[in-house]
Amino acid sequence: METARDILGKREANMKRLEKEAPNLCHGFSEFITYCVKPGALDRKQKELMAVAATVAVRCIPCLAHHANNAIKAGATRIYEEGLRVRYLCLQSRWLAEVFRRT
Asked: Hey, what domains does the chain have and what are their CATH numbers?
């Protein structure tokens, strides 16, 4: 199983490649993210934790690693981190994913 550091490294390389191959798409996505994380009613930690929930829902492991890392940098505690680890393991298990899909 890859570590979060491995996943984040691959994601960063893929984002650089995307920026090179599809600059307009990358620029638009960057503007969208900048708008989403700007200060408002929710702080950065809350927004990143919401992003974690969304990435769990769509089963995007690289995005989960990225947003979990950002949430921890924004002040999420070890309790949150443990919850993320459980969700990551659930995503890795087809059987558990199937169980969650049925509920």
From this structure: 4-102 (1.20.1290.10)
